Amino acid sequence: MLQRPEHQVAGHEAGSGTLGPLIDGSGHFFKPLNPSDERGAHELAFYTSFFSDPRVPHSIRSSFFPSFGGTRVLPIPDAPDLLLPHLVLENLLHGYSNPCVMDVKIGARTWYPSASEKYYAKCLKKDRDSTSALLGFRISGLQVHHESGRWKPHRDKVRKYTVTDVRQSLRQFISKNPDETPPDCALASSVYGGSNGILAQLLELKSWFEDQTLFHFYSASLLIAYDKGGKAPRLKLIDFAHVMEGEGIIDHNFLGGLCSLIKCVSEILADAETAAGPTDPQVLETTADLEAAAGPAEPKVVVGLTENGIH
Amino acid sequence: MLQRPEHQVAGHEAGSGTLGPLIDGSGHFFKPLNPSDERGAHELAFYTSFFSDPRVPHSIRSSFFPSFGGTRVLPIPDAPDLLLPHLVLENLLHGYSNPCVMDVKIGARTWYPSASEKYYAKCLKKDRDSTSALLGFRISGLQVHHESGRWKPHRDKVRKYTVTDVRQSLRQFISKNPDETPPDCALASSVYGGSNGILAQLLELKSWFEDQTLFHFYSASLLIAYDKGGKAPRLKLIDFAHVMEGEGIIDHNFLGGLCSLIKCVSEILADAETAAGPTDPQVLETTADLEAAAGPAEPKVVVGLTENGIH
Fold first, then answer.
1. Which of A33-47, A104-118, A213-227 has the highest mean pLDDT?
2. Which of A74, A286, B97, B100 is 20 to 30 A removed from A104 (C-alpha atoms)?
3. Residue among B60, B253, B308 minimizing CB distance to A108
4. Per-residue b or e along B274-306, where b marks 16 or more CB atoms closer than 10 Å to that residue's CB
5. Cβ–Cβ gap B113/A134 under 8 Å
6. Contact yes or no for B210 and A263 at CB 8 A
7. Cα A105 vs. chain centroid, distance in angstroms?
8. Between A226 and B146, residue with greater pLDDT
């Protein structure tokens, strides 16, 4: 029943001597706890603490984090005689047949103040070589399903993304034809927009980060996922191997990056809505899909944006 | 008529062979443009660009920035035969007889992506040695006038401030007796609170930073000032020698630090209001000053905070 996740876009992959996550058919995602690597123990400690802390609002836990079911000992695919404890998490792509997925690592810096000089130097180099230092976030991986197949840029290519590439990818991610120039952004309103869309979810998460001083999420990612099935797009925080105690200070590094992502997504949505002309039906194309995608602006989100911006 | 500013709490001071700012009796602040240092030219370029850019809202320019009157050639105090161009700025403390002043350098990092390796290493060290990396801001200097005189910690002491020291200073800054333990925070509501107070101004500035992608304010400071004269406390951005073009990206570094400062100020205000018990007059002390300071919570600000936080 256990298998390697088909739609993983970042992180370690199981097989060929490498430990990686497994999924089952019931919506579980098993992440190996490598005993020779303290990151697993650290992530387990985070989940245990986070899911038992009464100061974390229930709505935040259930909306933005994978559910957590402790640990389970499982055989390793390439070495079935070898048993290893795994974190039991929610498979965030369960129920999606052809998920479009993006992994966005949030924060201009991925090193934490108590890091060793070696780890710190390694992170700092990656932050400066990627878009993290400039943009406050970087894309770690993505895939888009479209009519003629799956578009998944190679990791080495994603690693070299410039700010322009990141902006482009955020547009390709919600396009029917990601390869088109410029990307059509036909799904902008249905994925990024609306009261259950990614932008509304990002704004809700931001509200919590403006207030919470419990945890600092260094090197964590936002997983953004949707499929064509009409379910609300999902936004979840993942990868907690480097979460630190907040010690009464807000996570200004994560919050700054989150605000930068919000700005980028807002711009794409505003452009798409202008292009689709929601007040001018003549501009709309005639396919039902496109009409649904470009559909009426959600007043709730527009008000939120206006409050946040002075134009 | 020209003299050295009496209430400067950070930055270079004029005299003894060092260039520093001068003030006149009409509310001007003259900042020397040292021809051997590109920072002056850079700051002049910023002021010129900022004050002519139609994309900067008028309310932001007038509320949060010193007014700018070009340049003027002036003699240097210690070498009156030597003439040097100066930036003509607004003396932000003009009209205050006994100003309480704090200089807060905003941002977890003061280096900018294009900085030289030498400058970058110098900034990074300062950011990690001070509270900048941890807290997203650091205090560069402060003074408080109280009944028995002026309290102004020495620069070397301020330079070594820990997070706890910063929190303490933010409380001492609005205390009648800064030396008391714990600080009395008697002026919290009148300085930090209210619809014209520092918190409300910080929130307005934050709204602009969530949207603006024109400038990145590396190593800039917020000057917070008030006196007992009953004027609204002032919040101004200063020190623009390292402002960079935003290139369409929000200033997530400044914004993150600003949100951290907002959180710290909010907590002090909430504590002070709880302690003063605005709904229970028996708890109030009887001096008019203290009543005015602790006075009724401002609904406008409280709503703003509630919207921003999940409790």
1. A213-227
2. A74
3. B253
4. eebeeeeeeeeeeeeebeebbbebbeebeebbe
5. yes
6. yes
7. 7
8. A226
Residue with tokens 């810096």, as numbered in its chain: A109
Phi first, then psi, for residue B186 (nearest 5°) are -65, -25
Burial class, B47, CB count within 10 angstroms (exposed 0-12 / middle 13-18 / buried 19+): buried
User: In which residue are the tokens 């605005």 written?
Assistant: B278
**A130: exposed, middle or buried (C-beta count within 10 Å: 0-12, 13-18, 19+)?**
buried
Q: Per-residue pLDDT tens for A83-108?
A: 999 999 999 999 898 999 999 999 99
Q: Do A256 and B260 touch (CB under 8 A)?
A: no
Amino acid at A177: N
Query: Cα–Cα distance between B309 and B311 in angstroms, integer?
Result: 6
> Residue B309 is nearest to which of A211, A247, A263, comparing CB atoms?
A211
Cα separation, B140 vs A124, in Å, equals 26
Whether pTM exceeds 0.95: no
The first and second tokens of residue A128, run together, are 């400066």
Put simply, the answer to whether A136 touches B249 (Cβ < 8 Å) is: yes
Residue B182 burial class via C-beta count within 10 angstroms: exposed 0-12, middle 13-18, buried 19 and up: exposed
Pairing of strands A28-32, A149-151: unpaired
Q: Residue A246: name the closest of B136, B304, B30 by CA.
A: B136
> Which H or E run contains A30?
strand A28-32
Report the alpha-carbon distance of residue B237 to residue B66 in Å, rounded: 7
pLDDT at residue number A18 = 74
Cβ contacts (< 8 Å) between B250 and chain A: which residues?
A: 136, 259-260, 263
| Nearest beta carbon to residue B207 from set A113, A263, A308 | A308
d(CA B308, CA A204) in angstroms, rounded, equals 9
The complex scores an ipTM of: 0.85
Contact B307 A259 (CB under 8 A): no
A33 three-class SS: coil
Q: Residue B66 in contact with residue B236, Cβ under 8 Å?
A: yes
Helix H, strand E, coil C: the string for chain B is CCECCCCCCCCCCCECCECCCEECCCCEEEEECCCCCHHHHHHHHHHHHHCCCCCCCHHHHHHHCCCEEEEEEEEECCEEEEEEEEEEEECCCCCCCCCEEEEEEECCCCCCCCCCHHHHHHHHHHHHHCCHHHHCEEEEEEEEEECCEEECCCHHHHHCCCHHHHHHHHHHCCCCCCCCCCCCCCCHHHHHCCCCCHHHHHHHHHHHHHHCCCEEECCCEEEEEECCCCCCCEEEEECCCCEEECCCCCCHHHHHHHHHHHHHHHHHHHHHHHHHCCCCHHHCCCCHHHHHHHCCCCHHHHHHHHHHCCC
